[in-house]
Each structure stands twice: as C-alpha cells, then as structure tokens.
Amino acid sequence: MGLELTWRLEEFREIVNEYFPVVDLWFDDGRPAFVVQVAPDSQQRFLQLRQRLEPLGYLPLLRRRDGKELIRFVPRPAARGWRWEINAAMFALTLVTTSVAGYSQAAWLAERGYLSSAWGGALAFSLSLMLILGTHEAAHKVVSVVRGIDASLPYFIPMPPPFPFGTMGAVIITRTPAPNRNSLMDLGASGPIAGFVVAVIVVIVGLTKSFALSPDAIRGEAFLGLPDPLLIRWLAALLLDIPEDALLFSHPILSAGWVGLLVTSINLLPVSMLDGGHAIRALAGGRVHRIVSWTGVAAALVLRYWVMAALLAAVMLVLRREHPGPMDDVSPIHPSRVALAVVLLVIFIVSAIPIEVTLVRP
After folding, report:
1. At residue 220, does pLDDT exceed 70?
2. How much is the pLDDT for 1?
3. Is 50 helix (H, G, I), strand (E, B) or coil?
4. Does this model's pTM top 0.85?
5. What is the pLDDT of residue 316?
6. Which of 31, 67, 69, 145 is the most exposed place for a label (fewest CB within 10 A)?
7. Burial code of 15-25, b = ≥16 C-beta within 10 A, e = fewer?
8. Closest CA relative to residue 134, chosen from 101, 108, 169, 86
9. Hey, what domains does the chain have and what are their CATH numbers?
10. 106 and 118 Cβ atoms separated by less than 8 Å
11. How do the residues of the chain divide into helix, strand and coil, expressed in percent and rounded to 5?
C-alpha cells in the first residue's frame, strides 16, 4: 500500500486539493499523508472526497496530529456479500435457546394453573425478547445503510442452559468506519433507543399479564428473586394496584422485557465497541474513550455483570484493539448528537439492573 501511494502521490494530491487546500506532505506513522486546511464545511467536503476516492480503492481519513489536520489513506475493504445463511442459522438457534430459557421460567406458573401452557409461555418469552433484540439490531442496520457503512446482518448469540436467558444479545460487524462523528453517534444510539422503545411496550404488556400472589397462596415455597430496574418499578406503580403484602410474579413477557432492559444497559456501557463506546468515541475522541472504557468495566463490576466485565477486560487487555473512530475525526459533532448522548444516559439509568439474587420465603 505504501509503495503504491508513493507512486500516486501527485494524483492523490490533486484530488485532495479540490476539497481541502494541501499545505504540505507528511508521514503519519510512516504512511504518506497531506497536511490540509480545514474549512467550516469540512464535513460535507470530506464526504465528497470519500465518494471521489472510493472508486480508486481507497478511503480517506481526516485526523489531527500535533496541531495539524492530516488526510491519509487506507485501502477500501473489498465489497463482497455477507453469508446470510450463518445469520439465519444463529437466529434460529437463538429462538430455540430463548424458548428453552422461557420454558424454565414458565413451567412453575403452568403447574399452578397461572399459564395454560408452559411452552406457550416459553414462546411468549422468546418472541418478545427476540423482538426487542431484533429491533435493536435492525435500527443499527438501517443507520449503517443510510450513512454508507458496510455492515453485516445481525449475528444473534445463542446461549444454551445453564445460561438463564438463552442469549447474550446480537452483534453487527462493520467493514468500514463511520464517515464522521455524527454518523458514529447515530450508529451507536440507534439500536439502544429503538430497542428501548420496544422494551417499554413489552414491559407494559407483561405487567398487565403478571400475577400478584398473596403469601398464603405460596406459603412454604422458596424463590430466587432479582431486583427490577427503575423503569419497571415506575411502570408497575403506575399501572398496577398490588396489595402491600403480595408478591408480583412475572409473566414470561415481562421477564423478556426485563432481559431486554438488561441487554440495553450492558450495550450502553461506555466500553470499547459497545454502543456506549461508540457514543463516547464520537463525543470525546480516542484518548477519552480509552480512559472511560476502563471506567465502564468498573461500572460492570459494580452492577455485578461479572461475565461481561471479564469479557470486556479480556478484549482490551489481550487484543489491545483501539476503537478506529470515524473516517473524519476532525469535523465537530452536532449539538443534536450531544442531545442523543443525554438520551442514552437516561436510558441507561432507568434500565440498569444491579444483579443481586436473593432467596424469597413467603
């Protein structure tokens, strides 16, 4: 790549100069780059430059180094199709594993006549949870198409027993970076916001179908209890009139909403390539992102997300892969995207669930 760019430096200089006045030649980490002057409309100019260079097999990167604005180049990843068969197979497997997880939750209710069918409850749990996760990932995919980011279909992650929820969510793989900081924020925010909206609807439906049982009805039995996020507490107080001494047993649909909010809060941790990591990288740049990522791991530990904290720490310690950032890392982020970040923070606060399992004996 370096040798080819050396041969074509004059060609690239002429192209770049049409959009950004070239001041000097610079070598950034041994790679040729141009020192340029950046205008107030740099974001639009950069998008035009990108369109110009893509047919030549390269993507431009706009960076700031030592007080200078540089444009350097990386090879454009080859455009090739994604293996949708793998996505479909993982989706189907996740339907199975979430149904199995739902059955384990619904069986007790069905045995006591609160549900007509344990497998019906299992399917209600699975479909509700997959709707939340699918909406989350579909929003990411739509934004990637609109913003010109080469991204895969979602890969759902099945988790068989003894994992209690049947899945660890889903991921989308991107081949090309976001064009600019606004697009990176859009990519990171779209999934959590869309998934959260659906999760709220699922929680409301689940609450209306749940069961308030008196202690006498379940005397002598023991149950594992988990805390609820703020959102479920608020909605339960608003929608339900539960006797003071009663215990609320979740319908499988409410359980799916609970898991959906948990997954949303995990995704919003400001770590690495999670959605919260995208948001922090778009807002504050690479240096702050590196520091805040470890703060996010600490937050996962405080919330007792032990498995996720271990995975994130391992990724950062072993792979040591930094967030690539957007192609244009110089143009400022729009105030509307700062407002999006505030929305994400609110969603995290009302969705986060400190995991603490307790034994309940009525």
Report:
1. no
2. 46
3. helix
4. yes
5. 84
6. 67
7. bbeebbebeee
8. 169
9. 2-75 (3.90.1070), 84-360 (no CATH)
10. yes
11. 55, 15, 30
